[in-house]
Design brief:
single chain; about 220 residues; Rossmann fold; 6 strands
Length: about 220
């Protein structure tokens, strides 16, 4: 069965500095981020059937390195950029991180109308992000053709979308950040829903007691 695999982009200087870096185009990959993208591509069991990325520079560069290794052309899609941090953009303080995480956790608990100051609500993120995933499903995952669909995207947006689509619940979804180039793998069900087959290094059932990490806030 083919899956939709959401891939977090490679490392950026913003990740290293733990910045709330969300605006498009955003910061480029570090040398380590480039190496992560190339390693991810080299370790794929087989090339994806199609390869997509968000419009953010870090995602597009990651996809370009995957393209260089696999030969599968990368295409940019609208609507799958990172959660927009608004007034918190560019901040790295503990207070900014905590404020963002309080709002983000509220979304995972169903409080989707809560808004990042000057930025997005959880519902607005889903309203732009989920239709893109459903279009990929309708276009590529209903025909029975072999090969996964890869979308290079962003940690916070990926986790929120996967939580809503697959029903994997907090605190797992809020505590388990994704490292650079880690993935969430979603398999379409016949009833129109999705099953989560992998979340970072974890596989079902997702009942692991994961403590909050000190990872960068967007992971």
């Amino acid at each position: 069965m083919s899956s939709l695999i959401l891939v977090r982009h490679g490392e950026t200087e913003g990740n290293v500095a733990k910045l709330l870096d969300t605006r498009v185009p955003g910061l480029p990959l570090t040398e380590r981020g480039v190496a992560q993208a190339k390693s991810f591509a080299a370790n794929l069991a087989e090339p994806p059937r199609r390869l997509f990325s968000s419009a953010a520079l870090r995602a597009w560069q990651t996809a370009a390195h995957i393209e260089a290794v696999t030969g599968v052309p990368a295409q940019v899609l609208d609507g799958v950029y990172e959660v927009q941090a608004g007034d918190l953009e560019g901040l790295s303080s503990e207070a900014a991180h905590q404020r963002f995480q309080r709002i983000y956790r509220a979304w995972h608990l169903g409080e989707l109308d809560v808004r990042v100051p000057g930025g997005e609500s959880g519902q607005e993120v889903l309203d732009r992000y989920l239709p893109v995933l459903e279009e990929l499903r309708d276009t590529y995952l209903r025909d029975g053709e072999a090969g996964d669909i890869l979308l290079v995207s962003h940690g916070a947006a990926m986790r929120l979308a996967a939580r809503v689509l697959s029903g994997v619940a907090p605190p797992f979804t809020t505590n388990n950040h994704l490292d650079n180039t880690e993935t969430i793998e979603l398999a379409p069900r016949a009833d129109g829903g999705w099953d989560c087959l992998r979340w970072g290094s974890y596989t079902p059932p997702f009942a692991y007691q994961v403590e909050p990490t000190a990872d960068d806030p967007m992971g």
